[in-house]
Structures are given as structure tokens and as C-alpha cells.
Amino acid sequence: MEPVNQPVREAPVFERKKAGRVRPKRILFHVFTASLAVLLLYPVIWLFVSSFKESSSIFTTSHSLIPDPFILSNYAEGWKGIAGQPFLTFIKNSAIIVGVSTIGAVLSSAVIAYGFARIPFKGKKFWFACMMGTLMLPHEVLMIPQYILFAKLDWLNSFKPIVVPQFFGHAFFIFLMIQFIRTIPEELDEAARIDGCGRFACFWRIILPLIAPALATSAIFSFYWKWEELIQPLLYLNKPELYPVSLALKLFLDTESASNWGAMFAMSAVSLLPVILVFFLFQKYIVQGISTTGLK
Fold first, then answer.
1. What is the distance in angstroms between the CA of the first residue and the CA of the last residue of the chain?
2. pTM of the model as a whole
3. Percentage helix, strand, coil, to 5, in the chain?
4. Which one, of 206, 212, 166, 160, lies nearest residue 185 by Cα?
């Protein structure tokens, strides 16, 4: 049986005209966004280009984006390190600080968020308000009391003052996870309790898998903040072998003699690679976490 040829329906004239009017607007939109992206990325592009220039010509070639001459020795020189330590040591220190801090901040925040979202207790609203109030508390207010506390605990010149506080939750992550947990029907908790699950089992088996976008978003932000953090390592670490990347880059700048700008820019470019890689691999989780979609 031969198929019957259906007549092709042509779009009305006004629809074709409307589609034609939309096309120039879309082109202008993409041109504008691309130009804005280039403008915002220019400092990063300039940093990468400057890492291939001689230190003496970085600020004297009218900020040209074309290295003249093009050299690779900045990366070799910067990788050798400074203050008697190879740069790989600084990367390892940053990886330890970031890894342990991220695990502690995400897990502890998830537990606290579950308590606020699911467990009734006296003074719940008051403690939630106190927790949210810490978001508006400047970090400078806490620096001196925390330093005195950690000095009395004999934690200076170690990673403990930087890592241990992360195991007590982060207000922003707690708030983010609470919004996710509140979108999960409580009937799932009741069904789990009928099957014999306690509070912890319900949290671990039901809630934790369902708030994966919030967990991933919190982990990404914790990674960013700890990787670029400078103040806390500057306060608590005095030994070069304990310096993270953020503090090690400062060593390339010498106020008494010539600063090695080329090596510093080269290692700055190297230190940006993990941040860029994490962003492109997990950017969808950032969108999902901020939008707080919960269950679909």
C-alpha cells in the first residue's frame, strides 16, 4: 500500500516575517554577550599571556597581548618554587586544606540542615535566626578572638585552625540545604520510619541522595573559597613548607629587590587550572543548587 503524500503546510506570511525580525535581535544579543564575556575575561587572558613574557617587559610593552619574545622559562622557574620549597609542595598543601575543609563543611552543614528542616526542638526559630545572623557578621570581627583561642590550643603553624572550624557547618550551605530538604515530601520520611529506619538512617538513605545538587553546589563553593583564601593562612602559618598556593604566590613579590613577575604569573595560571576545570565539569550543579528546584 503506497503512502499517501500529505500536503506540506506553509507557515503564514506573518509568522515568516516574525521569524525574520527575531533573527537580527538574536545576532545582536550574541554579539553583545560575547563582547561582554571578552571584556570580563580580559584580566585572565592578560595574565596567561604575561606568563610567557619576560618580567622586565610585562609592564613596559603597553600591555600588548603578543609576547615578544615568547618564553617558557617562567613556568620552569616558577615550578622550581621559592623559599626552598618546590611549587608542588604548595599545591599539595592547598589540596589537603581544600579537600578536608570541603568534606567537613558539606557533611556537617547537611546534618545541621536536616535538624532544622525535619526535627522539632525548643527554640528552633531562635537558633535558626542566630545561624543566619552569622552570615552578616564580618570575618574581621572574629579574627582576633579566634587567633587567641587557637594560640591557647597550640594549633598555630598547622592546618587545624583552617580546617577544624569547617566541621561545625557553614551558614550559607546550611540555608541552601534547608531549602532543598523542605521541598522533599515528609511522606518519604514516614515511609522510611515504617520500614524501621531511625533518624540517621532516614537522613543517610533518603534525604542525602535527594539533596545531591545542593551538596555538589556547596562543595564547589567551598572549593573556590578555600583555594583562593589568603587571610587565614597568612595568620596561622609561618613555615614555608605549610604554605598553600595563595600564600606562596606572594613570595614571588620582593619589596627589597626585583620581583619575579613572570614566574608569579606563570604559577598563577597554573593555580587557576583546577578552578577552571571544576567550574566546567560541575557548572550544571551550580545552577541546580542555586535555583533550589528540589524534586521535579
1. 45
2. 0.81
3. 70, 0, 25
4. 206
**Cβ count within 10 A of residue 59:** 11
User: What cell numbers appear for 41 in the block?
Assistant: 575575561
CB of 79 within 8 A of CB of 204? no
Phi first, then psi: give them for residue 33, nearest 5 degrees.
Answer: -65, -40
Q: Residue 105: which of 160, 176, 166 has the closest Cα?
A: 166
Under the banding of pLDDT at 50, 70 and 90, the label for residue 287 is: low
- Residue with cell string 566546567: 280
Q: How far is CA 16 from the centre of its chain?
A: 45
- Sign of the Cα torsion 68, 72, 76, 79 reads positive
Q: What is the mean pLDDT of residues 213-229?
A: 90
Q: Residue 183's closest CA among 131, 113, 239? A: 113
pLDDT tens by residue, 2-38: 555 555 555 555 445 454 455 788 888 888 998 998 8
Secondary structure of residue 82 in the 3-state scheme:
strand
Write the CB contacts of 293 (distance below 8 Å, at least 6 apart in sequence).
183, 213
Helix, strand counts (H, E) of the chain: 14, 0
